[in-house]
Amino acid sequence: MADDGRPVPQLPDRVTLPLLTLITQQSLDEDYLHVAERRAAGPPSGSTKRPSHRTAAVVIAVFGILVTTAAVQTSRNAGVEDASRTTLISQIMARRTTVSNMQDRIVRQRERNLALDAQLSQLTRTEQASAARLRRLEVRTGYVAVTGPGVRIVVDDAPEGDATQAVRDEDLAMLVDGLWNAGAEAISINGQRLTVLSAIRNVNVAIHVNSRPVNPPYVVQAIGDPRTLQAKLFETTHGLRFADLARRLGFVFEIENEDSLSLPAARTRQLRYVVVGTAEDNNDKHLDEESTP
């Protein structure tokens, strides 16, 4: 009732009901209405239920064929996938084996390289030691030119002396032996480099060194330590004997230190035979003078 006593009109459901409930009811009502109308109209003229069953059977058959085909295809695909997976796994295992073999080969190659490096280092050290030893031997044997400090000795016949006061081959040999014993590294006489095959001998009245005649004054150059070479010369037996001989016979004998001496290399000679001992001891057993330059 309203305030003035008149009845209040009722609002329709579409106004009062919730929107979702209203939509649901209207949809159901329309569906029921549609079904009721089809039933009231009855089945279409000339139609029977037999074709409906046949259609259903066909649909079921087609569906079965589709399902069967899908199953067969799936089975085939599964077989292919299994084969592909097996092949892939085999390839992976083969590649892993190859990689492992390559890694082992790399390790062996590295070890071989390390061994070769060590061998090369050893060979290099051996080569350097051999080269240094060869150099020392060349210097000592006289087959290489050398330069260095040492002593310079001048020896000459006695002034106005007779034949007995002339310097002879054994006198120079005595002096040379004294220099070797004192530590000389290289010696030459009048430019003739002395080697292990050198001979100092008299030929008539002339002295020959390395089969080459040398004339007085005889200049003997010896490379060695100038601080000790001269002093050590007169401490050796041969040095003392030569100094005494030079004093008694009146030889000219002058010795002085030199900061730099240059000695030539000796000619290469072919060894015929060797006599053991010093030049003085073997004065009458000279080396064969035949040589091949």
Q: What would you say this structure looks like, in words?
A:
This protein has 293 residues and is α+β, with helices and mostly antiparallel strands. It is 52% helix and 16% strand. It folds into 2 domains: 52-141; 142-263, Protein of unknown function DUF881 (Alpha-Beta Plaits), CATH 3.30.70.1880. The protein is built from 6 helices and 8 strands. The termini are far apart. The relative contact order is 0.10. Residues 285-293 have low confidence and may be disordered.
Question: Which key terms come to mind for this protein?
Answer:
rod-shaped, alpha+beta, 6 helices, 2 domains, 293 residues, Alpha-Beta Plaits, 3-stranded antiparallel sheet
Summarize the structure.
The chain is 52% helix and 16% strand.
Layout of secondary structure:
Layout: H1 13-16, H2 19-41, H3 49-141, E1 146-156, H4 169-182, E2 186-189, E3 192-193, E4 200-203, E5 206-209, E6 212-214, E7 218-223, H5 229-233, H6 237-249, E8 252-263
Antiparallel strand pairs: 1-7, 1-8, 2-3, 2-7, 4-5, 5-6
Mean pLDDT: 79
Share in β-strands:
15-25%
Reported for the largest beta sheet, the result is: 5 strands, antiparallel
Sheet with the most strands: spatial strand order:
3-2-7-1-8
What is the CATH first-level class name of the largest domain? Alpha Beta
Relative helix content = 40-55%
Structural class by helix and strand composition: alpha+beta
Oligomer: single chain
In the CATH hierarchy, the third-tier topology of the largest domain is known as Alpha-Beta Plaits
Compute the gyration radius: what is it? 62 Å
CATH superfamily of the largest domain: Protein of unknown function DUF881
